[in-house]
Structure formats: structure tokens, C-alpha cells
Specification:
There is one protein chain. The chain is of the alpha/beta class. Among the domains are: 171 residues, 3-Layer(aba) Sandwich (Rossmann fold), CATH 3.40.50; 171 residues, P-loop containing nucleotide triphosphate hydrolases (Rossmann fold); 195 residues, no CATH class. The protein is built from 32 helices and 22 strands. A 9-stranded mixed β-sheet has the order 2-9-1-8-7-3-6-4-5, sandwiched between helices. Strands 10-18-15-11-14-13-12 form a 7-stranded parallel β-sheet, sandwiched between helices. Strands 19-20-22-21 form a 4-stranded antiparallel β-sheet. Helix 12 packs across helix 13. The protein binds adenosine-5'-triphosphate (ATP). Adenosine-5'-triphosphate binds next to helix 4. One of its GO terms (biological process) is positive regulation of transcription by RNA polymerase I. This is RNA helicase. Its EC number is 3.6.4.13.
Length: 793
């Protein structure tokens, strides 16, 4: 560098260090403020009592109001009491204060079954059954434990894991990924320094595959346990086994604002329940006087009413899914444009990928004389004048999801349209108002048919409380429930555990991979229906993941358990690797794993049908999806404009395509990676030759249930009732040993939606008697193994 260069640099350097000092000062001030806020949280008053309870009990079931500080504070308390520091094999369990002064904030919760005495009952109740949970521990093969140094905090959802981790890192004044980190599927923001790790429950379950004793962790916190996701329930069963094996070296905390603590205390030997009393800010709950005919309209009205009448504060609206959110966004725009000038000034900011859309940037005030006065009036009463509509749902790319967490620009109110992704754990800065439609999309499973479906159903009371709890986190809030108080009282108290209403193939596969062979005997807190487990065993057998004695096969089962996709899709990928069409199979699996890519507006049916023709394949929907994927991938990646206009011309959902591309990229890495959990499989392409791909698809989806015939039809071979049909399938021929169809089910998603139609149409054809007579000896073997295992207990 010459002197001259140096001189040129100097002022910049000085400016930079000046900026840094200012930034440092601002950051320090912010931390001081956050620190003061933290100390006001109800959880703080309970700190010493909670730590003392955890010294004495291996399981703590903690109930505390939404916003009381469970998710953000408890892990920090544990860390400061040395629960999250390893090496000695004892850590805080021996050294931490064994009681301290109780501030009276926490109490053993009478009526919730939380006393140590009652926990003794739990011991007895759990006595004879935990054989399989112990098997889990044994499967660790004597792996060392005692070195656990980390605190894991599970969340049912990725967004919560990410955002809460960031908040806690900020509270602790560290960079995310250092002392505090998070891990979600395909994204690990942790380091060797990490002591508090927020993660999805599904990810901790995956970790248990390779480390069944969870030996990295001194404490596991299962947060939002009331949600009873399938992953949480399996984890609870596994952890029970881990506790038995690791003894005093391991602690479990189960937390929620809306939890039946007694159930958990009964389930875990020696558990104790505690209640954190009090909430930070009040939330006023308002009900409608009469039931609403159309909750979507009612939600729009309520949002606009809040925007027009209420002082500043963002609105969080709970809807059921992406389609509904898209409609709500459009309706809000339309309604805003028809409002009087004062309210109309609020342009509605479009979704982030539509820059320049009408309303963006809030130019509405320009040139409207009356509007300026109205704006002044709104400002005078502290009402924001613009409304910025932001969606958030699971299929939205993460960078767009994060937009809801950014503060609204001055003079603007955010209206966040969310699915239940925003229902628990998270704090969205600025939200003071919640609009609860009272509905949610929920999974259901028909074990008889092996079909999963999604249906819009009323929320439970616990969900309604969680939703209201998203207001009142930074100040007093209001929750508008779009149903009557009497309807609320009729709602189920809690949501039934997901494990009792979903396809269990993945779960069964993972348990088998952990060495738990007797899945029917696994110590579930709420055992799933027996038929559902049997159906999963049959499916896994049909996929080649289990042998006739119900054991995991090395070649298929073990590798499938490592693939982070549905076992049926995973089987396609394994088959494709052997058939030289891995690239195409990955594309198809990515497309069916993303949301529906086709946009089918009713008013433009002729147009979208015409646009669809160029992608259609006579060989089936999978090949059609492959054509769409190839078309998209041919566009220049860096040109957002080209991609957007191609999607819009072809009536294709760009968000779903981005998601598919993302899944594809991640799976390519995963499949090709030479060391576990990667599979090190070659990824060849079959080009325009489609036969290998069709073979691979058949192998994955219906290996023994159907065989592709030379003429392109499928033969359905009897394997119990494990048959997948499309509602438009046509029965070509009825032979003595099989039925011949032109087309079979192509994705789990489609059959999910059409489960009822399929049942009505095909069940008589697929009568149990027909299949019972033809059931293969091998499938019967799996059932016999399952039945034998059950009988042995
Ligand atoms: N990202 C954030 N920005 C601003 N404040 C936050 C943030 N995260 C948390 N807080 C503050 O910390 C408080 C406690 O949050 P925390 O998530 O720990 O509560 P909780 O008891 O776990 O609630 P819930 O049961 O709803 O998950 C919130 O009420 C809010 O005041």
C-alpha cells in the first residue's frame, strides 16, 4: 500500500471506528434495556425455586403463562447454574445451589399432580412396561455418557427454533452460533462453543439415531409439549429410556403454558410439576356475539377494524393455510381500496417477491388533500396510517418468513397473516392484537386405507390460548376470537396427540433403526392405534426396509432411515441410484415434497389448462412434474424476472418451485455425500429415457402392490390393503390374481386430499376378502411378527 493509499483510507477508517463506537453504545444500551425487561418476567421470580427442584428431581414439568419467560429464560438459568457445562460428569447437578431463596414465584402445583409423592405413583405405573425404551438405551452399545455439556431445547417448528435462539443470543450478548445456536433440518448454526441449542424436535430425534443416549446433552427441554407432535411423543418415550440409563447425569424439563401436567408427572418416574405464576402483560379476550358464517370475511373485517380504530400495534391473524392466506391478502387489498380516503391511504405492501406492487412504499398519501388531514388525525391519536400485509406459513422461504419479525416502518402497521406456525413460542415484535379465526388445518390418518389427510377443524382451547398469548408480550394486548364464548367452552381442551392420527411409517422406521424392534410394545405416552402401527410395518416390509422377521434390512432399511424424506420417497431415491436415474428421481421427489406447484384459478380455467399442455406427460403425473422442474431449471438462476414471468405465464407457483429447487439442492448434497449420514450414492441421469425412472417410482411407491406392465398399465398385486389408487384410476381388467389399473396414486399429498373419494370409489373393489385370499406369505409374516411380539408381553 502506498502512502497515498493510506491517506485515502484514513478518514474511512476513522469514520468506521466512530461508527463502531456508536453501534457498541447502542448495542450496550439495548442490552441494558433487555436485561431490565428480563428481570420483570415471572420466570425470574421463580428462578431459584426451579433450579432447586431440578437439583432434586430428574424431570421437571413446568407450566407458566404465555410470555412468562419459559422458552428464553429457563435455558439461561440452567446454564448459569452450570447445568450446561460438562467434563466432570457431574456439572451443575452436584455443584449448583441446592435451594437458594425461594421468591415464591414457583410452586408445586396442587391439583396438577406434581408432588414427589404422586410421582411415586408414576413410578409404579411405569413399572412393567418400559422394556422397549430400555432397548433404546441398550442399543447405544455401551457408548460413554456423562460428558454431556449442552442444553437442548426442542421446538415443534423451525421458525421458533431460529427466532428464539437469536433472541437468547442477543440477551446473552453473544453471536448466534456461539454460546447459543440452533439446528433445524438442513441448517446447523452451532459450534463447539454452543451450550444452549434450540432445535426442532424432529432433529433431536434424528440425532438420537446416531446417539441413542443423547450423550451430548446434560439437559433436554421439551418446549411446547402440549402440541404433542409425533416427534415429541417419540422423544418422550426415548428419553424415558435415556433417564433410566443415565441416571443422575441427565435432566428433562417439559414446558408449556397449556399443559396437563399430571399426565407427564405420571409418565416420568420421579417427576415433579411446578407452576410459574403470573403473566407479564394482560391480554383482553373478546368474542363475537354471534357465530360467524364465514371466518375469512370476519377476519378481514376484524383486521380492518383494528387498523381503523386501535392505537399502534401490529395485528396477527390466524388462518388455516397458504391458499387462505393468499385469498385474505387479496381481499384485504380490495377492501382497503374501497375504504374512505382516511383509511385507504394505507397501501397494502405485497409479498416480498412482488416489489413495486401497488401500495408498496405507501405512496397512497400523495396528492390527496383530504388524506393529509386524515393522516394528521390518525397520527394525533397514535394510529398508524398504512397497513403492510405480510404472510407467514411453513412453505414460505425462510428469508420471507423472517420479514414478519422486522419492525414496521414508521407510521405503518403490520398485518401478519399466519398459519399455526406462529401459534406457539414465538414473539413477533410489535404485535398487540391477535385475530383468531378458531380454525386450523389438522392431520388425520385412515389406518384402514393407509391414507393421510388434512382437514380444517376447530382449534382446541389450548390452541386458542396459545394464539391469544402472542399478544401481550411487549405491552397489554387484545385477542379477537371470531367465535362466541359459548363455542369456546365447547372446544376440546387440548389437541389429540398427533401420533394417534398420522402415518407412522417414518416413526416406525426410526425406532427400528435405533434397535427398538418391538415397536408395538414401545412405551408411548399415548399409544397410537395398533392398526396404524401394523399398516406401517406392512408398508416398510413392502418397501424392503424390513425383512420377514420384522428386522431392519441393511441394504434398504438402514439407508432409508438416514434419508430425511418420507420412506416411500426415500425408496424411490435408492432404487433410482441403482437404475441410473438419480437426478430425475431427486427432481420428482423434490417436486412432490414441495407444495402444489400448479396454480389453477377458477376464472382462468381455459388459460391454465392450455398452459399445462406443454408439460403433460402421457406417462403420468410424476413425469409431468419432472417436465415442469426441468423447464424451471433451464431459466437463468440469477434472473428473478425471467423466473417470475415464466411461472406467471405457465400458471405455476413460484414459491413452490423455489421450495422444490431448495429441497432438490439439499437432497443432491445428501445423497452424494460420501460419509454418513450422507449415502455416497452416484447421481446419474437417464436423460429422455423414462423407463428407469418409472421403474424407480414403482419400486418406491408400490413395490409389491403394483407392477408396471409393458403396456404401461399397473398390476395391483394383493398385499393386504396396501394399494394406492388415484381417484381417476380406471380399472382395465379384473384377473383372478390381480386388478389392472391404468394409473395409480402418484404422491402422498394428492391422495391425502382425496382420501374420502378413493375410499368411496375403490373400497368395494379392494374388499378385504379379495386381498385376504391373496395376501403374500411374507406380508403375513410381518403381521405375525408384530402379533407375536404383542403376545409375548
Ligand atoms: N424476539 C423478541 N423480541 C422482543 N421481546 C421478546 C422476544 N422474545 C421474547 N421476548 C420477550 O420475552 C418474553 C418471554 O418470552 P418467552 O418466549 O420466554 O416466553 P414463554 O413463557 O416461553 O412464552 P410461550 O409460552 O408463549 O412460548 C416475551 O413475553 C417478550 O416480552
Amino acid at each position: 500500500m502506498t502512502d497515498n493509499d493510506y491517506e485515502n483510507q484514513r478518514p474511512k477508517k476513522q469514520r468506521r471506528s466512530g461508527d463502531l463506537r456508536e453501534n457498541d453504545a447502542a448495542a450496550a444500551e439495548r442490552r441494558r434495556r433487555i436485561d431490565a425487561e428480563r428481570r420483570q418476567l415471572p420466570a425470574w421470580a421463580a428462578r431459584d425455586k426451579l433450579l432447586a427442584l431440578l437439583q432434586q428431581h430428574r424431570t421437571l414439568v413446568l407450566v407458566g403463562e404465555t410470555g412468562s419467560g419459559k422458552t428464553t429464560q429457563i435455558p439461561q438459568f440452567l446454564l448459569s447454574a452450570k447445568f450446561g457445562r460438562g467434563g466432570s460428569g457431574k456439572g451443575g447437578l452436584a455443584n449448583g445451589s441446592a435451594g437458594g431463596t425461594s421468591h415464591g414465584g414457583a410452586s408445586n402445583s396442587p391439583g396438577q399432580g406434581g408432588t414427589p409423592d404422586e410421582a411415586g405413583d408414576g413410578d409404579a405405573a411405569a413399572g412393567p412396561g418400559p422394556g422397549s425404551a430400555r432397548t433404546a438405551a441398550t442399543a447405544a452399545g455401551g457408548r460413554g455418557h456423562g460428558g454431556g455439556h449442552c442444553i437442548a431445547v426442542t421446538q415443534p417448528r423451525r421458525v421458533a427454533a431460529m427466532t428464539v435462539a437469536r433472541r437468547v443470543a442477543e440477551e446473552m450478548g453473544t453471536k448466534i452460533g456461539q454460546q447459543v445456536g440452533y439446528a433445524i433440518r438442513f441448517e446447523d448454526v452451532t459450534s463447539p462453543a454452543t451450550r444452549i441449542k434450540y432445535m426442532t424436535d424432529g432433529l433431536l430425534l434424528r440425532e438420537a439415531l446416531v446417539d441413542p443416549l443423547l450423550s451430548r446433552y446434560r439437559v433436554v427441554i421439551i418446549d411446547e409439549a402440549h402440541e404433542r407432535t409425533v416427534h415429541t411423543d417419540v422423544l418422550l418415550g426415548l428419553i424415558k429410556g435415556v433417564q433410566a440409563r443415565r441416571g443422575d447425569d441427565f435432566r428433562l424439563v417439559v414446558m408449556s403454558a397449556t399443559l396437563d401436567a399430571a399426565r407427564f408427572v405420571d409418565y416420568f418416574p420421579g417427576a415433579v410439576a411446578a407452576l410459574v405464576r403470573g403473566r407479564q402483560f394482560p391480554v383482553q379476550v373478546l368474542y363475537t356475539a354471534r357465530p360467524e358464517d364465514n371466518y375469512l370475511d370476519a377476519a378481514i373485517n376484524a383486521t380492518l377494524q383494528v387498523h381503523q380504530d386501535e392505537p399502534e400495534g401490529d395485528v396477527l391473524v390466524f388462518l388455516t393455510g397458504q391458499d387462505e392466506i393468499d385469498s385474505a391478502e387479496r381481499l384485504l387489498k380490495d377492501r382497503l381500496s374501497s375504504l374512505p380516503a382516511a383509511a385507504r391511504m394505507a397501501g397494502v405492501g405485497g409479498a416480498a417477491e412482488l416489489p413495486g406492487e401497488e401500495g408498496e412504499g405507501g405512496g397512497g398519501a400523495e396528492g390527496e388533500g383530504g388524506a393529509a388531514a386524515a393522516a394528521a388525525a390518525a397520527a394525533a391519536v397514535g394510529r398508524p396510517r398504512e397497513l403492510l400485509v405480510l404472510p407467514i406459513y411453513a412453505a414460505l422461504p425462510p428469508e420471507q418468513q423472517m420479514k414478519v419479525f422486522e419492525p414496521a416502518p414508521p407510521g405503518t402497521r403490520k398485518a401478519i397473516l399466519a398459519t399455526n406456525i406462529a401459534e406457539t413460542s414465538i414473539t413477533i415484535p410489535g404485535v398487540r392484537y391477535v385475530v383468531d379465526t378458531g380454525h386450523v388445518k389438522s392431520r388425520d390418518y385412515n389406518a384402514k386405507l393407509g391414507l393421510e389427510s388434512l382437514a380444517v377443524v376447530p382449534v382446541s382451547q389450548a390452541q386458542a390460548r396459545q394464539r391469544s398469548g402472542r399478544a401481550g408480550r411487549e405491552g397489554p394486548g387484545k385477542a379477537y376470537r371470531l367465535y362466541t364464548e359459548s363455542d369456546f367452552s365447547q372446544l376440546a381442551a387440548t389437541t389429540p396427540p398427533e401420533i394417534t392420527r398420522c402415518n407412522l411409517a417414518s416413526v416406525v422406521l426410526q425406532l427400528k433403526a435405533m434397535g427398538i424392534d418391538d415397536v408395538l410394545g414401545f412405551d408411548f405416552m399415548d399409544p397410537p392405534p395398533r392398526t396404524a402401527i401394523l399398516r406401517s410395518l406392512e408398508l416398510l416390509f413392502a418397501l424392503g426396509a424390513l425383512d420377514t422377521s420384522g428386522k431392519l434390512t441393511e441394504e434398504v432399511g438402514l439407508r432409508l432411515s438416514r434419508l430425511p424424506v418420507d420412506p416411500m420417497f426415500g425408496r424411490v431415491l435408492l432404487a433410482a441410484a441403482g437404475l441410473g436415474c438419480g437426478v430425475e428421481a431427486l427432481a420428482v421427489v423434490a417436486m412432490v415434497s414441495a407444495d402444489n406447484v400448479f396454480h389453477t384459478p377458477r376464472q382462468k380455467e381455459a388459460e391454465w389448462r392450455a398452459a399445462r399442455i406443454k408439460f403433460l406427460s402421457r406417462e403420468g403425473d410424476h413425469l409431468t412434474l419432472l417436465n415442469v422442474f426441468r423447464g424451471f431449471m433451464e431459466l437463468p438462476k440469477e434472473s428473478n424476472k425471467a423466473r417470475t414471468s415464466w411461472c406467471s405465464d405457465n400458471f405455476i407457483n413460484i414459491r413452490a418451485m423455489r421450495k422444490a429447487e431448495d429441497i432438490y439442492t439439499q437432497l443432491v448434497r445428501f445423497m452424494g455425500h460420501p460419509s454418513p449420514p450422507g449415502l455416497g450414492l452416484p447421481l446419474a441421469t437417464c436423460g429422455d429415457e423414462t423407463t428407469p425412472l418409472r421403474r424407480a417410482l414403482t419400486a418406491g411407491l408400490f413395490p409389491h402392490a403394483a407392477r408396471l406392465q409393458p403396456d404401461g398399465s399397473y398390476r395391483v398385486i394383493a398385499t393386504g390393503r396396501q394399494v394406492f389408487l388415484h381417484p381417476t384410476s380406471v380399472l382395465l381388467e379384473r384377473k383372478p390374481d390381480c386388478l389392472v389399473f391404468n394409473e395409480l396414486m402418484h404422491t402422498s399429498r394428492t391422495y391425502a386430499r382425496d382420501a374420502t373419494a378413493i375410499e368411496a370409489r375403490w373400497l368395494p373393489e379392494l374388499a378385504p376378502a379379495f386381498f385376504a385370499a391373496k395376501a403374500s406369505a411374507a406380508t403375513a409374516g410381518v403381521s405375525a411378527v408384530a402379533a407375536g411380539a404383542a403376545a409375548a408381553r
